[in-house]
Amino acid sequence: MFTGIIEGLGTIRKIRPRGQGRSMTLDADFALEGTRIGDSISVSGACLTVVKLDGRRFEVDVSPETLSKTTFERARIGDRVNLERALRFSDRIDGHLVSGHIDGIGTVAFRQSKGNATVIAFKVPEAISYYIITKGSVAVDGISLTVNNCGINGFEVGIIPHTAKLTTISFKKVGDLVNIETDMIGKYVERFTAGNRRDKGQKGSGDALDLEFLAKTGFV
Predict the structure, then answer these.
(1) CATH of residue 49
(2) What is the pTM of this model?
(3) Of 55, 65, 72, 168, which has the highest C-beta tally within 10 A?
(4) What is the C-alpha separation between 217 and 137, in angstroms, rounded?
(5) Which whole number is the average pLDDT over 13-19?
């Protein structure tokens, strides 16, 4: 589990095929004290497992599923990436709960300076935009951001100078691709209220957790 608060940047140093997946070696710009083999690190939003570690250099395996859902299919040696180590139970959650399981890829549609911020719009498939709400949270390349506006084909965020300085978002140009993870809470709510309703006559105990049930119990 992650927060979307990026610790620092890293650089891809090696990319090697591994079956239908890949192996990547990266150098972090910051010390990785306390990190061990088997730990999870969010690399531009994707939760990957450390399989080798030597100081600030570490290696991860990228599965075929991860390649199909993320920008890593197009990754190149020298690419800069956002890094965040997994959340500890003692940590504060300054961003939002981020699983590191990417929903899909978005495209930078436009960027424009506005006061002390940079407004960036992303185009995403409808299947992703369905779970994005105005003033809700979204992770873009692992960065926890607040949605300013959203529609059926995309959403817009505001980037403050601090975020631009510490992440790869400042490098992104119109047409560039990014990893998108929507708010997991919204996906669970949708699942419970719509996707997991029991068919009439299906055996089982208890009431179905749907909008009717929530209304009866006073939650909506």
Answers:
(1) 2.40.30.20
(2) 0.85
(3) 72
(4) 28
(5) 96
